């Protein structure tokens, strides 16, 4: 297999309530799963191909819980990437050159019966994990924004995170609220639902701890 590694930031928004039961090995809030994710690679490589500064995103949905399958995924790749970089990012996002079920990309892909051809887009990611803020766009394909959860009594920011020492996506995240929308083959809209910020640090074996 090709050795690869990504290090950067992820912002994701799904249709679950703020706590996202899926993170606790429970069924999703309304029994279905829809999510839009944005991924910024600050430093990375795929074999000898450098991936520093590139971005990617996806829109993905399942009719029931993720592990029940039958999902569809729309990969979105940074238009600035050259041919080798595009191939590398798509390979990582679709679980190729990856140990079986080792990354969340590999799991999500395995649970999809249809992975659509990638869309190439200008991707902008302005996200701050500590502040729990995000404004992201894959031009013509998807957009997302996030902000902190607010205390319903005081109106002050309510900080909460999830720790998953054995997680396949992250070991610790920051949780907030998000609004996202996608178009094209996997189109849907999310409003005021679970959002997360986490360090993106993976290789073909899984999360780098």
Summarize the structure.
The protein has 209 residues and is mainly beta. The protein contains 2 helices and 15 strands.
Beta-strand content: over 45%
Overall, the morphology is globular
Unreliable runs, pLDDT <50, ≥5 residues? none
Instruction: Compute the CA-based radius of gyration.
Output: 16 Å
Largest sheet: 13 strands, mixed
Q: Helicity level, as a percent range?
A: under 10%
Compute the number of helices. 2
Series of H and E elements: EEEEEHHEEEEEEEEEE
Domain count, please report it: 1
What is the β-strand count? 15
Structural class: mainly beta
Query: Residue-averaged pLDDT, rounded?
Result: 97
Query: What is the distance, rounded to the nearest whole angstrom, between the alpha carbons of the first and last residues?
Result: 21 Å
Kindly describe this structure.
This protein is mostly beta strands. The protein is built from 2 helices and 15 strands. Strands 1, 2, 3, 4, 5, 6, 7, 8, 9, 10, 13, 14 and 15 form a 13-stranded mixed beta sheet that branches. A hairpin with an 8-residue loop joins strand 4 and strand 5. The longest helix has 11 residues. It is globular. The mean pLDDT is 97.
Write the layout of secondary structure elements.
Blueprint: E1 4-14, E2 33-46, E3 49-50, E4 55-62, E5 71-78, H1 83-93, H2 104-110, E6 112-115, E7 119-121, E8 123-128, E9 133-138, E10 142-147, E11 149-150, E12 157-158, E13 173-182, E14 188-203, E15 206-207
Parallel strand pairs: 5-6, 5-7
Antiparallel strand pairs: 1-2, 1-14, 2-3, 2-4, 4-5, 8-9, 9-10, 10-13, 11-12, 13-14, 14-15
